[in-house]
Design goal:
67 residues, alpha+beta, 3 helices
């Protein structure tokens, strides 16, 4: 999978669900082949596309996109 494919899938899902998801939820919903998100790709999403990862009710971070 290329970065642009990953980016489009993740951003589309997060825009449809503004409350956000944990990485595990995104991975399952989008059937992503990665055990963990690539740190370089996550940093690019944060810098270029307003991805925010914040603590949720558990230890997992909630991924959201600022509108």
């Amino acid at each position: 999978m290329r970065y642009v494919d990953f980016r489009e899938m993740v951003l589309a899902e997060l825009h449809r669900h503004p409350a956000g998801f944990t990485w595990l939820e995104l991975k399952q919903r989008l059937d992503l082949p990665y055990r963990q998100a690539c740190p370089t790709w996550v940093k690019r999403l944060e810098d270029e596309d307003s991805l925010v990862r914040a603590p949720g009710a558990t230890r997992a971070l909630i991924w959201r996109v600022l509108s």
